[in-house]
Amino acid sequence: MPVLAKDSSDNKKLNKRRGRAGGHFFSSDSAEGLPAGRDRNYAKSREKGLQAYGDYSLVLIVLFLLAFGLVLLYSTSSYIGIVEYGDSAYYLKRQLFFTCLGLGLMAGIAFFPYRYWKYLSIPAFLGAIGLIVMIIPYGREVNGAKRWLDIGPMSLQPSEAAKVAVIIFTALLIEIIGRRRLQKAWGFLLPMVPAGVISVMLWRITNNMSSALVILAIAFGMLFVACPDYKRFVALAILGVAGSAALITYIVRSADQADLGFRGGRVLVWLDPQAYAGDTGYQTLQALYAIGSGGIFGKGLGQSMQKAVVPEAQNDMIFSIICEELGLFGAIAIMVLFVILIWRFILVAGNAKDLYGALIVTGVITHIAVQAILNIAVVTNTVPNTGVTLPFISYGGSSLFFLLAEIGMVMCVGRTSSL
Amino acid sequence: MKNDKGEGRLQTGSAARHRIRRGPRRFTISMQKRLMVLFILILAAFVFLGFRLFMIQRDNGRSYTMQVLSQQAYDNKTLPYKRGRITDAKGTVLADSQLVYNVIIDAKQMLEKPEYLEPSLDAAERLGLDKEEIRTYVTDHPGSQYYIARKNLPYQEKRNFDMEVAEGIEKEEAAQREQEAAVKKAEEEGAEIPKTDPVELVYSNIKGIWFEDNYIRTYPCNTLAADVIGFTAGNSDGAYGVEEYYDDVLRGVEGRTYGYLDESLNMEQTTIQPSDGNNLVLTIDANIQSICEKYLKEFNEEYKDNKHKGNGTNNAACIIMDIDSGGILAMASEPGFDLNDPFNIDAVAGMPKLDEEDTPTSSYLTLAEARNLSDADKTRYLRTLWNNFCVGNHFEPGSTAKPFTTAAGLESGTLKREDTFLCTGQLLVGDTWIKCAHLEGDGILDVAGAIERSCNVALMQEAAKIGNETFCKFQNIYNFGLRTNVDLAGEARTDGYLYTADAMSEVDLASNSFGQNFEVTMIQMITGFNSLINGGNYYQPHVVDRITSAGGSTVQSNAPRVLKKTVSEETSSMIRQYCIQAVEGDHGTGKLARPAGYRIGGKTGTAETLPRGNGQYVVSFLGFAPAEDPQICIYVVLDRINKKKQDEAGRACQVTRKILTEVLPYMNIYMTEPVSDEEKLELEELGLYDTNERVPEDEE
Hints:
The structure holds 2 protein chains of 2 kinds. Chain A is mainly alpha-helical. Chain A is built from 16 helices and 3 strands. Chain A has one domain. Helices cover about 70% and strands about 5% of the residues of chain A. In chain A, strand 2 and strand 3 (about 155) form a beta hairpin. By secondary structure, chain B is of the alpha+beta class. In chain B, a hairpin with a 5-residue loop joins strand 2 and strand 3.
């Protein structure tokens, strides 16, 4: 593996330089203070291809989140499991299966040199598009939305696969375009193209606006980190806020007309859930009731009364049940866990040995952060209702499986970084 | 990638030299800074959301907690009880509640998979539902889980459906297993796997149809004893008859299944089984009842549309009472109605039209008129129809009251059996001439003769001897003017139709003596007469013999209850004798009532109705049988026969005779009298007399 060896020696030199300059943003003390000998051994062991070192704290947080998520999923889904399948552990078992499968994949990816993904990114992107297109003839409809593909006994949500594909493809595009050309208009727009294509397809074919938004956000987050210009982002943010405000005003103004579609309806529900308590506002309101009734320390694990009432309690709305059972304390603990996880990712990205790796980690960060924030925001009625799952905790095989694949990618970047 | 190097140089300055050829791009410090900005943004979002959670808790915590508790809807469902059954004395079922099913459609389940819809809709069609209607409902209400699509599906239909589905599923599963086995076999043998289409699932895909228990009331004998039984549309609220009177007995207690969340928030389900209502065993004997109804109907048929269009009589009624218990063996009144279809307006056709006060007029309702009645009028006529004439109507009894007057005189001692009276055809009472039935005069009559010939003049003289006070006292003893409290709904009050001793004039007393000018109900008359015959025991009249639990054990027994002594045995025996004479005597008015082979006693009655002189009469026969050892009392009343000349008590006697001819043999009462050849023929026709049977006896 000559390339790898070259890389690591290159890295070492860089590290020394950085150490001298003292300007590394994310240099950790351990890495800084290491004697040269240790550093050399470290590089040597890495040359063997397999090494003992991994980002243990990252692994720990991921495993903790997974275990925590399984416990909470069991608590929230046992009721619906009994009702629908006569087995309180129905959802737990399925989730556990995908967790194990995902962990295997995660480990596999963590030891697969990520530079090769560059070659995989275009096939992955085309594959994702193919999967989405396959929904048209072969898709399975659940709750009125055609978003699943059945593969044997399992079912796959192509939108989740698309997220991974977009991350690796966008990272490649940004790297190719390069920093300077990113500042040009075309260079700025080009990395958004794959995400844009997938988003439009998801929106038109599966009517899945939330996944489309998450994918756009992922690409946008990566672009934000890569593009050395705040002004246009500030401008875009202002434009976005103004546009949303205008749209909301328009929807409220024309509230009495029935042709707003369900998204317009969701905005109205968001503004006044009580007014729609009987139908469209039911889920939001019940989730709020669950949160409000939790108190500081909650009713205790498994003590939720709302899990029988809140629709999709084991899924999009799981956070409301967590609030009810574990209270404000438990909810904030979960958020802190996410923040720690993201911080670990930031460290990995900051210490990535190249832009490509850093961008991939940035994509994963954006993905997890946007989903977690959106999910909690929906549950607390901070934004209009849109179906986004809470990473690691909500029920969903595809989501968990590809999420763990992404974690594997982060670990791989981290493993070969200078951290 | 040519520009790479140049750019790299730009980025990292001197470090570019260390980058060997086409090294990968760096993640620059400025990028790292922006990554930091991203992190801060994310952190800010989380902090904001945490704050938002806190605000929800602080501002709405209490109200939301209460909201959550108030939402703990306990899923519950009532389970219907089975209303008690009504049987006659011999166990014939007169009213029963049958298990039927409501068909419930669960649209959500039906739509769960696309392949469920069609088989389920087909299945719904097999249950007698309209397929397209259900399809429309299901597509319009995809979330609906409880829609009663059909009520009262008969048990048998549900059973057939269940069996068909179960068999179908079994077959489909067997076919699937077979196919799997074939594939497995082929795999093992390494042969080519046979290509077969997957088993078409039809029965296995029937979803979203389920059944809910319900009960409906059925009356297997339709019109039999309709007035006595009464009816109910559902499970409660009996109307008329014992269904109304014993409603609380027949009703059970509804059961309930309810779910609740237990301590560990599991859905617990508890079922409290319904307790079924108690059963009624009537004193009514369905056979005796049907004999009565048969002849009343026959009579009504005979005189139907005779003088005018309409029923044969306004009312034709009969009560047969067990003499030693007051139990009613039969209570029939025509026109009747079908208990399974009580609201059928056709049944009121032929009834007299009602005036504003619901009293019958002398014009009659045709079928077309009946069908065109307004809803309010329909209700009025139906109520008249449903009303039990035997307890709910009152009328002037006429001469059937004469035994009562005589008994009052004998019992009080104001009258002696050897007293005689002269009848010249009419009598001057006060300043009014009151006529006798026989205008030519009956001559000198003793007490017995007065009853035999039904002489009004003699009775008026007897009453004069008895006097106001005693007469009224005895009316009270006979329970006239008071309800008998028979266990049937709708017994009429008659207290306003009697004179008090002070208000009673000479004429009133005279007319009362032969049963005019005061009104009674049939049940009052027969219960009173029963006591005159059985030695003075006034029994509580009743139609329910006992109440049994759903399991069959007796809960309450209506044992015969003597309420009072009306007359002494001595008086009673004289009244019996006089009544026998009224049937058997040469001048007896009740001759026509004697059935072949038996001796009976009784008294006829022909009562003018109000207004006087309208030519409308209520004719009746009040009697007992057999003469020597009375077992039953019988009272037949024909209210306004559809005939030009209505004042013929003989019609009532004829009906009585026909009824007794069948009832007495049925009750295993042996014939005591020789039967004439003519009577033999008549009995043979009824299958009651077998000449052949007697042949061996003759040979001996």
